[in-house]
Specification:
7-stranded mixed sheet, alpha/beta, globular
């Protein structure tokens, strides 16, 4: 059997020579890819001045390009995407149905109004299109403009759309984009690049897009590429080890934008325990945030803190909520949540061990590896909470908001809240502890913030830009810093 090829795409050219073999992650599909050591010198721009052609484009030119590209990414007609999807079935950690879900929305990703909204909300079109004038109280005029940067994007493999998101952010900021593909999805970004080459090989956006695979930690590649004369930003998604590794290359002139590993939680008010109707509503919302996309995203809920309020039988009623949530997850459509491809063996051993500790825990489901709800009978999450996955969640009883705050730290990304009124007690407090996003329970997987607004406690597209000031002091008689 011939191993499949994860092509490199370099600035309008598809590279398929000098192939070497790479093992799949966790014993997955073995694939071939061009030897990155042979072409690493071609990945960065020859000169920073080569960015100028991006500034010959109007924003409407960028919209035209992305709109046409989006039409060509239809999974029903794009052979490159079809092949990438077929191969991704074997490397992705999720079942086929969820891989299909990931590829299904590509045609709408670059819709004109959506792209314009991302540009306006994330940076501001006036700053992207020209110099914005600010007059200070002493008469000095400062003109500010957002310029693009030369960036390497180390994308994650938990969703095929991250390559598209990276292109979108790079295009609207007029940045040069090099993508390092992940081992659990080495095909999708290459398929995107091939489509760009076929559509417009000489267009500036195509010429400022490259994608390649190399093993993380390959010093022969990274020590050459990760230099300030080649790139100005490294935008890294990934786990703790991967982010930690990249930091050794950071130096003056080379900035790390870290979208580091996150976990997310839910907070449910005592109203959910009041009656059957409210309990089922909370459970259906929890099912979406826990079970959606098989809990593969950073925004997926892993621990649910339940405020028991005045309910003397709070733990018992919380257990009923957990049972309703389990049932609701099992009823989610298979295109959104499905029996895990391979339930993590270490996680299952932890869950099964808790079955024997019924004084402190109750485990609902999980015998078939379909996912499980773990009910803590004391206000303490399980020791392995950060590793909850495959539709497995922990329910923790809390008397007060202070108990919830103990479960929030710098790794906490999203907090799903129900009822909505409960947010008033959280929104001005949880940021101090590290939380970065509040949503209405059931909406954690909504991806609006990922492409337009704050993400992981920052605004990534603004960070990708270089903010340049032009100060005009004509007519100011005394500019002494001591005056």
């Amino acid at each position: 059997m011939i191993n499949p090829v994860a092509h490199a795409v370099i600035r309008g050219e598809v590279v398929d020579s000098d192939l070497i073999e790479y093992p799949g992650r966790a014993g997955g599909l073995t694939f071939m890819a061009p030897d990155p050591r042979k072409f690493v010198d071609r990945l960065p721009l020859a000169s920073p001045g080569d960015m100028a052609d991006l500034y010959d484009l109007s924003f409407d030119d960028i919209l035209d390009y992305l709109e046409e590209l989006g039409k060509r990414l239809d999974i029903n007609s794009n052979e490159h995407m079809q092949q990438a999807r077929e191969l991704t079935y074997d490397v992705a950690p999720v079942p086929r149905e969820l891989v299909d879900l990931g590829y299904s929305g590509f045609t709408t990703f670059f819709e004109r109004d959506k792209v314009r909204q991302v540009a306006e909300k994330s940076v501001g079109l006036d700053y992207l299109e020209g110099w914005v004038e600010h007059r200070l109280i002493d008469g000095v005029i400062i003109k500010v403009r957002a310029f693009g940067s030369r960036g390497v994007h180390i994308v994650a493999g938990n969703g095929p759309g991250l390559g598209l998101l990276t292109l979108l952010r790079s295009a609207i900021s007029r940045s040069d984009c090099i993508i390092k593909a992940p081992s659990n999805d080495p095909f999708t970004s290459a398929a995107l690049g091939k489509t760009m080459c076929e559509m417009a090989p000489d267009h500036p956006l195509t010429k400022h897009f490259a994608v390649a695979y190399w093993q993380g930690g390959d010093a022969a590649v990274e020590e050459k590429l990760f230099q300030p004369h080649n790139v100005e930003k490294i935008i890294a998604w990934g786990g703790f080890a991967g982010i930690k590794h990249v930091t050794k290359y950071i130096q003056p002139g080379l900035e790390l934008i870290s979208l580091d590993p996150k976990t997310s939680i839910s907070v449910v008010g005592p109203e959910a325990l009041d009656d059957e109707q409210q309990m089922k509503e909370a459970a259906s919302r929890l099912a979406i945030d826990i079970g959606g996309a098989n809990q593969a995203g950073c925004a997926s809920s892993r621990v649910t803190y339940v405020l028991t309020g005045s309910h003397q039988d709070g733990v018992e009623r919380m257990t009923e909520l957990a049972k309703h949530t389990y049932d609701a997850i099992m009823e989610l459509p298979s295109t959104f949540s499905v029996m895990p491809k391979s339930y993590d063996k270490e996680l299952k051993s932890h869950v099964d061990a808790l079955r024997l500790d019924d004084d402190w825990y109750e485990v609902i489901g999980g015998e078939r590896g379909e996912g499980a709800m773990i009910v803590s009978k004391l206000p303490r999450k399980v020791d392995f909470a950060a590793y909850l996955a495959d539709r497995t969640a922990n329910f923790v009883p809390c008397e007060t908001i202070d108990d919830v705050l103990l479960g929030i730290d710098a790794y906490t990304q999203t907090i799903g809240v129900w009822p909505e009124s409960l947010k008033a007690q959280l929104q001005d407090v949880v940021p101090f502890y590290g939380a970065q996003r509040l949503v209405t329970l059931g909406n954690a997987l909504y991806n609006g913030p990922l492409i337009g607004l704050a993400h992981d406690g920052m605004e990534p597209v603004r960070r990708m830009c270089k903010w340049i000031a032009n100060e005009v002091s004509e007519g100011i008689t005394d500019t002494s810093p001591l005056s």
